[in-house]
Amino acid sequence: MNYAAWYRRCLWVGAALGLVVIVLGAYVRLSDAGLGCPDWPGCYGHLVLPGDEGIRAAAQSAFPQRELEAGKAWREMIHRYAATTLGLSIVLAALFAWLNRRSPRQPVATPLVLLGVVIFQGLLGMWTVTLLLKPLIVMGHLLGGLTTLGLLTWLLLEDRRRNADRQPRAVVGPVVAGLLVLIGQIALGGWTSSNYAALACPDVPTCQGQWWPEEANFAEGFVLWRGLGVNYEFGVLDAPSRVAIHFTHRLGAMLTLTVLVSVALWVRRRAKSASLRTATSLVLATVLLQVAIGIGIVWFGLPLSLATAHNGIAALLLLAMINLLHNTSFRAALRPAPGR
Predict the structure, then answer these.
(1) Of these residues, 76, 158, 214, 215, which one is catalytic?
(2) Which residue, among 265, 288, 289, has the nearest Cα to 277 in the 3D structure?
(3) Could you give the CA distance from residue 105 to residue 90 in angstroms, rounded to a whole number?
(4) What is the pLDDT of residues 63-110, one digit of tens each?
């Protein structure tokens, strides 16, 4: 068996599924279906939601605290099926990497790290339900999904570019800094969504008619842990706390836009290859599209299509930055800085 070829196939399947799972997860959360199944891993005690009315009534009686809504339950279960398939593809990729470990071109450590990440991601998915949409867990689940997708993409880039025998060098600091800023902004987005603060500022560019909202309660808005047993569906924070969260996310968006545009232009001026210039163009196009969608979400009152797209484009922006980082981490990718 050609382990390297099967390893590569699993990475491609995993990356495609990773993006699908992230978008599906956003759709489930934004359509208020995060607790469509009150248990885990089944749904009302079944791995497939029963169609028979008698069985469905029995399932409902087993979970009287949560009314069975078939549409929400199916959305949640489809997301779980896709996530399970993603996990299986990563298990197989790690297995083929291990079986092919004697090849000098085969990475082993990173696929095993990825396997650990996806196992922990499964636990976060369980806790999202059992801890009743606790914002810190929901945000962590989002970051875990993006970490999974990012690692899959990095391994694909490594596999493709390793065949060119290019020698890696130290990564470029500004690109790493831009990536860290982006991750922080994605975390803020997850915190905003999980606390139902997306429309806390219904106007743009001001917030509540002010450039700096006076009623914002930053101390209360960023309490990460509030104890167990609280149902966080539809949020528990008051209006000033949600304003603080939303406004912070806006400030983060402006910082992220400035940093990523600056980094992309900095790299573009020094790029030697067409692929590196293309990588910067992808970052610039994606970050501008993401900002436009964010404005549209507020302007049009949080339409589900735009809100879901905002999550998907965030994932694509992360991939664009990972691609840029990988491009700049090779010797002779950049021209020397002036005066050096």
Answers:
(1) 76
(2) 265
(3) 19
(4) 998 899 999 999 999 999 999 999 999 999 999 999 999 999 999 999
Residues ≥6 apart with Cβ < 8 Å to 127: 134, 137
What length is written for the chain?
Answer: 340
pTM of the model: 0.93
User: How remote is the C-alpha of 165 from its chain's centroid?
Assistant: 31
Q: Which two tokens stand for residue 140?
A: 């962590």
Of 305, 138, 124, 126, give the one whose Cα is nearest residue 235. 138
Whether 219 and 171 have beta carbons less than 8 Å apart is answered as: no
d(CA 261, CA 60): 52
Structure-token match 């590196």, residue found? 276
Active site residue 67: no
Residue 68's closest CA among 38, 25, 26?
Answer: 38
Q: How far is CA 104 from CA 97, 108, 331, in A?
A: 11, 10, 20
pLDDT tens column, 97-120: 999 999 999 999 999 999 999 999
**Tokens at 317, concatenated:** 């922006």
- Taking a C-beta distance cutoff of 8 angstroms, is the pair 41, 126 a contact? yes
- Tell me what the pLDDT averaged over the chain comes to: 93
